[in-house]
Amino acid sequence: MKKILIPIAYLLTAFLLISCGQPSTDTQKPGKWQSYSGDKRIEKRVDSVLKLMTLEEKIGQMTQFSANWSITGPVMSDDFQPYLEKGLIGSIFNATSVEGIRRFQQYAVDSTRLGIPILFGQDVIHGYKTIFPIPLGEACSWDLEMMQRTAEIAAIEAASDGINWTFAPMVDISRDARWGRVMEGAGEDPYLGSKVAQARVMGFQGNGDGSKLGELNTLLATGKHLAAYGAAESGRDYNPAELSEHTLRNVYLPPYRAALEAGVGTFMASFNEINGIPATADRWLLTDLLRDEWGFRGFVVTDYTGTNELVPHGVAEDEKQAAELAVNAGIDMDMTGASFIKYLSQSVEEGKVSEKAIDTATRRILEMKFLLGLFDDPYRYLNEERAKQNTMTPEFMETARKAVASSIVLLKNSNQLLPITKESGKTIALIGPLMNDSINLNGEWAGMGDRHQSVSILKGLTEKYEGSTVKLLYAAGSAITETTPGKIAEAVSAARRADLVIAAMGEDFNWSGEAAVRTDIRLPESQRELLKALKGTGKPIVLISLSGRPLDLSWEDENLDAILQAWFPGTQGGHGIADVIAGDYNPSARLVMSFPRNVGQIPIYYNQKNTGRPVDLSNEKIDYKSSYLDSSITPLYPFGYGLSYSTYDISEVKLDKSSMKATNDKITVTATLQNNGNMDGDMVVQLYVRDLVGSVTRPVKELKGFQKIKLKAGERQQVSFELLSEDLAFYGIDRKKKTEPGDFKLWVAQNSADNTNETDFRVEQQ
Questions:
Q1: Which residues participate in catalysis according to the annotation?
Q2: Which tens digit of pLDDT belongs to each residue from 374-400?
Q3: 596 and 693 fall within a common domain
Q4: Which domain holds residue 721?
Q5: Residue 128 backbone dihedrals phi, psi, to 5 degrees
Q6: Which residue among 248, 253, 348, 736 has its CA within the 20 to 30 Å range from the CA of 78?
Q7: pTM (2 decimals)?
Q8: Cis peptide before 741, with omega less than 30 degrees from 0?
């Protein structure tokens, strides 16, 4: 009898859905998705489901479990099978493969009372099977179109495997290189971070208005981690963040707001607390700000066991109270902790959580499932043949290779040691633990990418120089964390027989990502020992630095001849790096995080505030200033910095007028760029401003625009920026965002430390 009743119940649900309106392209493409709640057809269809649901079934939709096929957090002891059998799961993540996802979905649709489809999520951070450079590296390209395209490819591959939802992009501002999760974001600047957030949301979801949600090659995106996860004290993961509201609003919140404006479907609450309140329990953050002030209409998910962790945070006495705090704050879905499904029914009965709050959360989740087309066809993403066709295609490989090359930052190049052309006739000693390594190249959070398929640097260089006059010698010299005198001797022997050395060194990929915090961000001691031995040969040395964070490269900068910061480059790492070394690609990447001179400078960032006793950078030894006794206050490499095989000039900076009004006005800035080299290249030109006097203190510089301009060898070209009065707005002493009148400085520059081409303008009272 049971086998008959279940299909009848499912057919009843389907009948009610159909009676509220047949699905159409308008349903799947309602226009700007943020206004989907105004779509009467979807509202009726959601209502029809809600009316059939018990309280427990609604709470089940608010519950997410991990299939544990790919672990991203502490494994919960609760077996979710009983919940699956009762239709009490809204989402599953870490389920991979078409076959596995189909099995879960079929059970939910065919064997539960209402047959509500499951939403499948996955950490698709910088690629799914085709792995691109880590987001921090990719952001160094300053190429928004490319970043949107790599997110599109990741969405195509993941959706082809049955994934509907990605927990990306991470849009946290990061100023502390000790924090392992800097690798997931776009660095230290809120303006650039906001632009990157929008590009990646648009890539995952199809475009900026959400009208492509539900198409087979798109994923529901997640803005994370709300909020200020990157401001954790001491760079320690999960640690508190102590911030003024001015800093929170002016620095850390803009990229989340930008993701919302790009149409992001979901947000993830952060692990950290802000000023004493864990984000998962922060009603001001999740309701007053996110929904009432910003107007967000998607749904909010916790991070892994975020609800349960309110107990050790010390704001909940047990998991039942933790669940109540989370829901009442504005959380819609509980990731893996099972606290909602265990306790919320009782909390509703006791009046500690309203059923209206449960209905609201359930509605938001169901609406997204309708937008994704899961009610119309629960299996629409599941097609083994499509998965094969859309995985690691030649076009995807070519895009990945270009992404690698455009993400590599040339930090030093003494005597134009690079590039090494095929016609140079050089003998090169290829040294280092990461030279013949493919396992580490993908970095952390590398989706379902096969690390064994990644192209090693040795392979990339070997193929690049095959048949040329360049000769290659190879000796590892060390492992990542250890070496022997014999290994070093072998590497030194190779170096002595070569014209120059290329050394590939850096971190293990596990040293960045979640729960991967380092207090010593130098190269490991064994690698430094190897470099010192190679230095003793007197041969020129090129360092390829592979890492998930900015490193302390002070010794390397002083002692080596050339440095390439290659991050963790992904599947096509070896080929993209070889393209840069051989000169087939002229380096164009620019840093999005400042590199410290030592760990004692951290946090270090360009858009700092002056003190009452600012340091004169021309003489930092003046006493009683905000300086160090044993180091400069400046970074080793500043935000926006990077070299090229060409040199560039910026001149003739002009403003079309010397002042503008505080609202609805603009100044057009023009400048002339010139490529002085003999290679074509891409120049990242950057616009900075400084507000000299504000109602609250203002940064010494702020990025307000950038363009990546192609310049042929010897070419001159004019570039223009429109600086809007609204671009100068900030949250002032009255906690309102507006542009204040006053005097400003402006620079069109090659990096944040470039003070040439300075001019000024004024903002007048309206």
A1: 303
A2: 999 999 889 889 889 999 999 999 999
A3: no
A4: 648-764
A5: -110, -65
A6: 348
A7: 0.94
A8: no
